Amino acid sequence: MKRVIGIDLGTSTSEAAVMLDGVPFIIPNERQNAITPSVIGRKEGRFIAGEEADERKLLYPQDTSVEVKRLMGSGERIRLSNKFYTPEELSAKLLVHIKAYAETYLKEPVDSAVITVPAYFNNEQRKATIEAGRQAGLSVERIINEPTAAALCYGIEHIAEESRILVYDFGGGTFDVTVLEMFDGVLEVKASSGNNELGGKEFDQRLIDYLLYEAREKYQVDLSKDIYAMVKLREAAIKCKIALSSQKEYKITLPMIAVSGETPVTLEETITAGMFEEMTADLVELTRKPIETALSDSGYTESDIDLILLTGGTTRIPYIGRYVEELLGRKPEKLIDPDLAVAMGAAVQAAALSGELDPQKDIMITDVAPYALGIRIMTDMYGIPFDNYMDILIPRNTTIPVTKTKRYSTAADNQREAIVEVYQGEKEFATENVSLGEFCIGEFPRARAGKEKIDVEFSYDLNGILVVTAVVVSTGEKAHVSIDMKELDEPEDIDISEWSRAPLARKFRATVRKTEKWLAEQEYTPDSIEVEEILIALKEAIVLGRDMDEAEDIEAELLELLDR
User: Please, which of 119, 228, 244, 371 could form a disulfide with 145 given CB 3.0 to 4.6 Å?
Assistant: First the structure.
């Protein structure tokens, strides 16, 4: 029987867990700590991760990357030690670190894992997570939503109970709310909603903005342009946020953080819990709409909920508990460790998949599709043919696994083929949603418009993996696309070193050379990093021969930065 571990791959911290003697157990890292910072760095030509990387970020910010999770599936590149990496590549280095300390503790190879993701992660973000696991040498047996994992952690000890549960999951980088029903060993997800750009990071930023303002007002210094000062401010903000979870005030002292004239500046500020609550109250208020959406989609009201579970490190902020109680009319429970619950729930799922789970504690999970899924079709709108309509086959919050089929007709006389374009989202115009893929189906027999029929089937599994199949009814001709997170193409490797030989090079040569000269004269700053990233984008546009408008837009952005 192979060992499968659970991993909470978080924005700020990550944890690994396993079932031991029928109980979920957090695997300690190499420092014997339960929580590992989600920090990746470079040291002496090698990658480091976790606490070793975290300890170096103040002195070597240019060699350190944090909060990579937010960029998963974005296609962005992250600069680290003068090289650029994808978020998947850096997340893989963190997973390699977690895999190594898990193997050391368990004294056996670890090749398989269940990895958690925010419930509101889209298909590309889920793909990226599995790709990171693959690069780390892990077979990702299941992707499980973080609130569902937290509910599993609770449910394993309350399997005989029947209850309706709302999980309020506020982590370092994302917020999710999920409504579940637990009965007869079944954990049924009813609805999920969330915000992938709301987390503890935003609370940190409010403190940073306050400190930047005070530094300008009191000492006439702008710390925002100093990469080293900004790292120190962020570290101080995080410590302050954590301290205010258990005490009424916290004094921030940052000696010699800047120089005003010839005088060293020591920044000292006392932040009270009331001040912190006031500067972040609007962020907490942003969780209201996802809660209301999840309740509405589940068909439940506030009074139907039997239990509210808080999970995620940000829920340690006292105001959040009070806000949730006021909004839902019930005191939320912290029955499980908010920092560790997700990893422990992932371990329960891992044990179920590997056959390690006690049959008496076996829990079956049903989850939901967090986004609507459909295809682009032609339809009549106000009597006018419209070819960009989003026709939804799987509505948001449909229980998965699920298979849905819908029949369509040809749109033109003697039509020989059709392009099936798959989208994720709920906008009426298909192209305003997220494109997931497309394929061609044909050849149709020649016939009048509407006579030939095509059956389109959407099959969506527990990993959030979608397979779309189309069949020509009259001939049985079949085609499909598998939007499968486990079968990713390797990312395109664009060699920009030969940009000057590309057909578009001549038009943009002067701008490229001007930028390269500017960069050579600059110190390593946030501005120079931004300029270099845009320069790379311009060279890529030149090499790939993208349309002129796109390349010109990139050039304009670059020149604007240089002229600031």
Answer: 119
